[in-house]
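Troubleshooting: if your tokenizer reports a length mismatch, compare your output against this known-good record of 195 residues.
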Amino acid sequence: MRRLLTAVALGATLLAGCGGEDEPEPPPRERSDAAALPPSGWKTVRNQAAGFTLAVPGEWSARTKGGTATIRSDDRLVSVSVSADRSSDGQDIPPRDYAREALLSLPGFEGSILPRPRRIRGSRLRTARWDAVASIKATNIGQLVTVVAYQRPGQVTYTLVAFRNSKVRPEFNALRLERLFRSFRAQAPEVGRSG
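Known-good structure output:
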């Protein structure tokens, strides 16, 4: 009996030392996709903290700060923000629901959302895109708003939010935005940086 109790105690100690079944397993190691080849006259924007790349027109400005990238068109009619969420929400909530919630959570959002989300053609990630015609209280300017969620299930959801003036050259910027959306690639975040 003493030998049995000793063996059980030793087994329990070994299990405790190995972490047991109650501790969550770490998420699988993220892989990095090669950046999309930018079209002629475009440039690649890279955010190492959040872990992504995308292509933008060469004359547009792009600034990365921490886990966020902010992109603005040269005519100031388009503004894009991109960030990453590696929390349990970002790992588990389906892109369709994640993107819709992000759209509805925009400060001062009032508007109508198109009835169905779309996917981003050619993306290697799970995607959902919601479009809306909105008025943002802070500006009182009509906006076309697009929220795209790009997800690696169990690891990360990237959120891209694009605003564009609904009255001035929307069709011109729409083509550029479509190309920008398709150029998004996931990267493993740089070690030691937050994402």
